[in-house]
Design a protein that fits this description.
By secondary structure, the chain is an alpha/beta fold. The chain contains 15 helices and 22 strands. The protein has a 7-stranded mixed sheet with strand order 14-15-16-13-12-18-19, sandwiched between helices. It has a 6-stranded mixed sheet with strand order 9-8-7-10-11-21, sandwiched between helices. Strands 5-6-22 form a 3-stranded antiparallel sheet, with no helix packed on it. It is globular, with a radius of gyration of 23 Å. The N and C termini lie far apart (64 Å). It binds nicotinamide-adenine-dinucleotide. The site of nicotinamide-adenine-dinucleotide has 29 residues, from helix 7 and helix 8.
């Protein structure tokens, strides 16, 4: 587990709360304001101004002008500016980590999202000066037939509260490398790191407005999707919001990429290294971001021959996770994002108990004592869960995992695939042939074998089924931000 402790500045960081348009903090908010609460203490953290349709208009117009300037630079200059941005992000890692903690109280030991941002920027900067096109014969002629890839112009990037920096990395970086400008809309619940990132873009010399950052609620978000100046929308969030965005996008005839939720299976075979499987399942299950990650392995499927041994160690490991102040670098487990979310998650747990969905082995309650004012919920493990129960089918987005037993490979695959989601799947095994065989049969966009969900710029990431469509990362992630043009030149 990575710890960011180097270069940590213990002084308080200023929390930016105004919209960032054209490189300036804009003091207006026709979308209203949001009173941000720090989930670690339940205390107010500051006021966030929200964009409405007026500010979205301003942001799109400003991005349109900046994109014209951006695309007028040589490829070398754009590449070098993105590398400068990666360097600047590196220099500000400590500041970004702290802002990320302020955003949603993710433990600073896990605030590796800022490292991702640097990695994605470096990776995609390398594509700016690589050829994106082809020239091919054209049937029946000697014409010059060119197939080129061009930017969309201005793209709208909509981020969830739990992943503004991941989305800055996996969407904003390739969008810029492809020659676009971005109107970046973080959630009002987690705007600080994103706003600071927008400022840094201008500080390193990107055209002001190339990355405008506009925290907004549903009203401002819809105005962005509806805007005639937007070439494409890249949305990361929940399925319910995705349906609304797709309906609005259909009216505007604007293409959408959707990165949505998950209910990922983690299959522990009898030949797994059991200690490693326990550690990985605990981290990737209820621990990481308190289970508030699309990538969480919230259904753990264990072979019957190792079921009891696994459960005993798994529960002990989950119970020993260090909980506390998210700014303490030794803490790995923090609060959930808000009071309503804490109530919602406790409701899921209560219903699972009252309907007999599984046996509650540990957790299930709000934490008290020094943590009582924050939104801390104990890491929670249910055993012998029925895969048909709501507990196993709906995304909980909290520190709750369901453990189930299986008898053979075919049954494990059947249970893993028996879900409306298909974002990730995890396999714990030391049998190479089994790892390949099973990974091909799992309906998921990513399969992680003896590995946590370690998103990298080289790996296309995205969902099957209700986990969405489109990819971030890899060449596939770059192509999401490029449209194809065919140019044909008669040769006489
Ligand atoms: P959400 O769907 O509530 O909100 C996502 C974003 O959409 C926010 O910025 C929100 O303000 C905005 N929004 C809300 N209504 C809108 C509308 N009508 N028009 C336009 N924008 C609108 O999701 P959330 O609670 O912020 O995040 C949690 C969800 O995100 C979970 O389901 C999680 O699995 C998913 N997620 C997926 C990935 C992935 O890569 N697949 C990554 C992180 C999170």
């Amino acid at each position: 587990m990575a710890l960011i402790t180097d270069n940590l500045d213990p002084s308080a960081v200023e929390l930016p709360g105004s919209l960032l348009i054209g490189g300036d903090r804009i003091d207006r908010s026709s979308g209203g304001t949001h009173a941000h609460i720090y989930p670690g203490t339940g205390r107010p953290n500051g006021t966030v101004q929200l964009a409405g349709a007026e500010e979205i208009d301003l942001a799109v117009e400003s991005s349109r002008n900046a994109q014209r300037e951006w695309i007028s630079f040589t490829a070398d200059r754009r590449r070098d500016l993105l590398i400068d941005l990666a360097d600047a992000v590196h220099e500000h890692l400590a500041e970004f980590s702290r802002l990320n903690v302020q955003d949603y109280a993710v433990p600073i030991s896990l605030a590796i999202n800022t490292l991702l941002l640097e990695r994605f920027l470096r990776h995609f900067a390398g594509y700016v000066d690589k050829p994106h096109g082809l020239s091919t014969p054209a049937a029946g002629s000697f014409d010059l037939n060119l197939i080129e890839r061009e930017p969309y112009g201005v793209v709208g990037v909509i981020a969830p509260w739990n992943g503004a920096m991941v989305v800055a990395a996996s969407c904003v970086a390739p969008a810029l490398a492809a020659g676009n400008a971005v109107v970046f809309k973080p959630s009002p619940s987690a705007p600080f790191a994103a706003l600071r990132f927008g400022e840094l873009c201008t500080e390193v010399g990107l055209p002001p407005g190339l990355v405008n950052v506009v925290p907004a609620g549903p009203e401002g978000g819809e105005a962005l999707v509806r805007h005639s100046g937007i070439g494409k929308i890249h949305f990361t969030g929940g399925g319910r919001t995705a349906r609304k965005i797709l309906a609005t996008a259909a009216e505007n005839l604007v293409p959408v990429v959707a990165e949505l939720g998950g209910k990922s299976a983690n299959i522990v075979f009898e030949d797994a290294d059991l200690d490693a499987a326990v550690q990985l399942s605990a981290y990737q299950g209820p621990i990481v971001q308190s289970g508030q990650s699309c990538a969480c392995a919230s259904r753990v499927l264990v072979h019957e021959s190792v079921y009891d041994a696994f459960l005993e160690r798994f529960v002990a490991t989950v119970e020993s996770a260090r909980v506390g102040d998210p700014f303490d670098p030794t803490v790995i487990f923090g609060p959930v994002v808000s009071a309503p979310d804490a109530d919602r998650i406790l409701g899921v747990i209560d219903r699972a108990v009252s309907t007999g969905a599984g046996e509650l082995l540990t957790g299930g309650k709000r934490m008290g004592g020094e943590l009582a004012d924050g939104y801390f919920i104990e890491p929670t493990v249910f055993a012998d869960v029925d895969n048909r129960s709501d507990l196993a089918r709906a995304e909980t987005f909290g520190p709750v995992v369901s453990v189930m037993r299986f008898t053979d490979e075919a049954e494990a695959i059947r249970i893993a695939n028996d879900s409306s989601y298909g974002l990730n799947a995890f396999i714990q095994t030391t049998n190479l042939a089994r790892a390949h065989r099973v990974s091909r049969l799992l309906q998921a966009g990513s399969v992680w074998i003896n590995q946590v969900s370690d998103i990298s710029p080289q790996g296309p990431y995205g969902g099957y089924k209700h986990s969405g469509f489109g990819r971030t990362g890899g060449l596939e992630g770059l192509y999401e931000f490029l449209q194809v043009k065919n140019i044909r030149i008669g040769m006489g």
